[in-house]
Design a protein that fits this description.
Ribosomal Protein S5, domain 2, single chain, UPF0029_Impact_CS, 2 domains, 215 residues, Impact_N_sf, 5-stranded antiparallel sheet, Impact, Impact N-terminal domain-containing protein
């Protein structure tokens, strides 16, 4: 068996309820509902928090702007794994600089979330909160959004994944498929050659390393 390395990272979200694990990173499932149970009120202003998968942020912003035409700010932050490192984005969306987007981002950091975004929609209540008040309000709304997502079971353990291309002789093919399935990996493509088959295998990096170590 010959292994062909590919520098590829992605995310697999397990279909299981969230379990508290110390020092373990977590993510949100894709296609999370935008119905929010996270509402924080302060001096008449309402802050609605929405937690979602990072890949859905742009479409979620459009949907939320359409659903809340009277809201004045759509603050967001996200953390995603790209190119071997964690990439972060945030926006104050017209609020004073540093008063909203970064506090939401800090909540994601504190929860050790990856591949997750939070949008906080603000309805202005007529009273200015000041920078300190805004920091507290957006922080609380973001925390409530993640707590709501946790209660709904849409926060799951984050698993760093990769891809390998493995060349297998025809006589080994059946046994290789058995090992792949046993390790919880999946074949995402096959190339049939004269002397064997090139299998493109995706899954948990630790499982991929176990597969390689046996040959």
């Amino acid at each position: 068996m010959q292994t062909i390395d590919k520098d590829s990272s992605s995310t697999i979200l397990e279909s299981q309820s969230y379990k508290q694990q110390a020092q373990s990173k977590k993510s949100c499932r894709e296609q999370t509902s935008l119905a929010s149970n996270a509402v924080y009120e302060c001096k008449g202003s309402k802050f609605l928090g929405f937690a979602l998968h990072s890949s859905e942020l742009d479409s979620a912003l459009g949907a939320l702007r359409a659903a809340h035409p009277k809201a004045v700010h759509f603050v967001y932050a996200l953390r995603a794994y790209q190119g071997g490192q964690v990439v972060e984005r945030s926006s104050d969306d017209g609020e004073p600089k540093g008063s909203s987007g970064v506090p939401v981002l800090n909540v994601l950091r504190g929860w050790e979330m990856i591949e997750c975004g939070i949008v906080v929609v603000r309805y202005f209540g007529g009273v200015k909160l000041g920078v300190g008040g805004l920091v507290r309000a957006y922080t609380q709304a973001a925390k409530l959004a993640l707590e709501s997502a946790k209660d709904l079971g849409v926060i799951v353990p984050y698993i760093k994944c990769g891809e390998r291309a493995v060349c297998v002789g025809y006589g080994e093919l059946r046994a290789m498929h058995y090992r792949i399935k046993k390790l919880g990996l999946r074949v995402c493509g096959e190339e049939f050659e004269a002397n064997g088959v090139i299998l493109h295998i995706q899954g948990d990096m630790e499982a991929l390393q176990k597969l390689e170590s046996r040959f």
